[in-house]
Amino acid sequence: FHIGEREEKCIIEDVPSDTLVIGKYKVQRWDVHTHGFLESAPGLGMFVTVSNPYAEVLMSKLYGPQGTFSFTSEISGEHIICLQSNSTRFIAFAGSKLRIHLDIRVGEHFFDESAVQAKDKVNEINLRLEHLIEQIHHISKEQNYEREREEKFRKTSEETNSNILWWAIVQTLILISIGVWQIKSLRDFFISKKLV
């Protein structure tokens, strides 16, 4: 994505509790002379701020023009990841565009193939099994988190349906009482005019 030199960009990630989130980014600055983005942006860094669903800051750190950040979620929900350049130019002069390449991986533990190749076959199978067990734990956490979300959604739906039912009953009672009042008023009017 593209941002201005002093602009902040935030991304929302829905993350289960106790889950590792790893983000890799790279910043490129727009070059006016070549009318393209430079391969890197020397001297330019990025502030990375991560907030949990309760707006508590989990991480706030300054990185270079490219880097990797990681955090572990304490609670499940929507975590906000914000990126902003550390440009010191005044807003009037900071008209340069930045291109940011961002890769966010939720719950992944990278599998190091080079370590496997250096080990013998038994250790290779051991490492692969450990990696599979980690993936199973991650999938289990994801499923539990989705169950929690589905339960909250079901509760909210049931409460809404109950409120709609009561509102319909109240509306029906109001309509019946207004109808009875109108009939009584009309009858009293006809009696007073001696039409009945």
TrEMBL record:
Keywords carried by this UniProt record: Coiled coil, Endoplasmic reticulum, Membrane, Signal, Transmembrane, Transmembrane helix
GO cellular component, one term: endoplasmic reticulum membrane
SMART domains membership: EMP24_GP25L
Family matches, as InterPro entries: Emp24-like (IPR015720), GOLD_dom (IPR009038)
Limits of the GOLD domain: 8-106
Main location: endoplasmic reticulum
Membrane topology term: Single-pass type I membrane protein
Transmembrane annotation, as ranges: 164-183
Compartments, as annotated in UniProt: Endoplasmic reticulum membrane; Membrane
Pfam families xref list: EMP24_GP25L (PF01105)
Coiled coil: 115-142
Family classification: Belongs to the EMP24/GP25L family.
PANTHER family to which the protein is assigned, alphabetical: TRANSMEMBRANE EMP24 DOMAIN-CONTAINING PROTEIN
Protein known as: TMD11 protein
